[in-house]
UniProtKB/TrEMBL annotation:
<protein>
    <recommendedName>
        <fullName>Retinol dehydrogenase 11</fullName>
    </recommendedName>
</protein>
<dbReference type="InterPro" id="IPR002347">
    <property type="entry name" value="SDR_fam"/>
</dbReference>
<feature type="transmembrane region" description="Helical">
    <location>
        <begin position="6"/>
        <end position="24"/>
    </location>
</feature>
<keyword id="KW-1133">Transmembrane helix</keyword>
<dbReference type="InterPro" id="IPR036291">
    <property type="entry name" value="NAD(P)-bd_dom_sf"/>
</dbReference>
<keyword id="KW-0560">Oxidoreductase</keyword>
<dbReference type="Pfam" id="PF00106">
    <property type="entry name" value="adh_short"/>
</dbReference>
<keyword id="KW-0812">Transmembrane</keyword>
<keyword id="KW-0472">Membrane</keyword>
<dbReference type="GO" id="GO:0016491">
    <property type="term" value="F:oxidoreductase activity"/>
</dbReference>
């Protein structure tokens, strides 16, 4: 009994020490400036996207925060301007769960912007607990995390090409390795829905998309890479209580513990920032990153046949001509 208690305490200390002193310490140290450059970040009103917006605004970029809620977006813009000391931060409305909204956003960008140097596909969600659909009838996670960004990137490609060298940064997740391949026979999770598995499919779709896009962008100076930001304490855990269905005091204790050991949003934004600005990555494309470094990913994620299949299906679903 005493032995196992000591073991548990030591294990808890090792886990705490690892997360506090090793895992959380990621910091991109490059001092690159982005004066005269334009960056779009989806889902920049909170979490990783907001922290990336602050950093890139500090570096002199014009930062376009693409958000779906006007009130949350406006509050975030105020904060981003104040914290970064830059006034060159604008809010534009984008709901990735609506193809109409994505098309309107792209139209507005072409009408207002001369250039686009970095597109950061960051917005995403894990949930809700019960299957839900977007305005176009897609399962919400595959719809927002993958299909909305698929259409957005395609529509903005001409501007990225006009502004090259330019970059596309895709915020995926390490959870894409949890599934053995895309669920092509049930892409909308109608037969089977579980939050974590459906999320993993949507994040695998992010990686397959970025590899396939990099092949299609060969010969241009537009690069695309995807990444895992780490496990980060953000509003991505907003469905946490609904999912666990535990008494509220346990939820509170768990949230407190998670906040103590997980990365904060600023730390979670470091690999995003690195992929957006690092000069040494100017011509690196078609890679998956963790901790600002290239990581080997799963066999499923590097399957070219599945990547092409997903591309063709996505094109049809969002009504893009081949
Ligand atoms: N946190 C982690 O541990 C972790 C780990 C691996 C990968 N990631 C990925 O990192 C990215 C950022 O997540 P986060 O942790 O910063 O989460 P977050 O704090 O919940 O931020 C997500 C952002 O996405 C936006 N969003 C959600 N649905 C949208 C829609 N339909 N249209 C436009 N924007 C929408 C949210 O806007 P609202 O506030 O209006 O909902 C919010 O701004 C996500 O792609 C996530 O999958 C996170």
């Amino acid at each position: 009994m005493i032995k196992s208690s000591i073991f548990m305490i030591v294990l808890a200390m090792i886990i705490y020490g690892y997360f506090t002193f090793i895992y959380g310490r990621l910091e991109y140290e490059g001092s690159e400036r982005l004066d005269g450059k334009t960056v779009i970040i989806t889902g920049a009103n909170t979490g990783i996207g907001k922290e990336a917006a602050i950093d890139l605004a500090r570096r002199g970029a014009r930062v376009i925060c693409a958000c779906r809620s006007k009130s949350r977006g406006e509050a975030a813009i105020e904060d981003i301007k104040k914290t970064s000391g830059s006034n060159n931060v604008v809010l534009m409305m984008l709901d990735l769960g609506s193809l109409k909204s994505v098309r309107q956003f792209a139209k507005d960008i072409y009408a207002k912007e001369e250039r686009l140097d970095v597109l950061i596909n960051n917005a995403g969600l894990v949930g809700p607990v019960y299957r839900d659909t977007t305005k176009d009838g897609f399962e919400r996670m595959i719809g927002v995390n993958h299909l909305g960004h698929f259409l957005l990137t395609d529509l903005l490609l001409d501007l990225l090409k006009k502004s090259q060298p330019s970059r596309i940064v895709v915020v995926s997740s390490g959870s894409h390795t949890m599934v053995p391949g895309m669920n092509f026979d049930d892409l909308m999770s109608e037969k089977s829905y579980s939050v974590l598995t459906t999320y993993a499919y949507s994040k695998l779709a992010n990686v397959l998309f970025s590899f396939e896009m990099s092949r299609r962008l060969k010969g241009t100076s537009v690069t695309i890479n995807s990444l895992h930001p780490g496990v980060v304490m953000t509003e991505v855990f907003r469905y946490f209580e609904d999912y666990l269905q535990l008494p509220s005091f346990i939820n509170k204790a768990l949230r407190w513990m998670l906040s103590a050991v997980l990365r904060d949003a600023r730390q979670g934004a470091q690999t995003v920032i690195c992929l957006a600005v690092d000069k040494s990555l100017q011509s690196v494309s078609g890679q998956f990153f963790e901790e600002c470094e290239i990581y080997e990913t799963s066999e499923a994620a590097t399957n070219e046949t599945e990547a092409k299949m997903l591309w063709d299906i996505s094109q049809k679903l969002v009504n893009l001509s081949p």
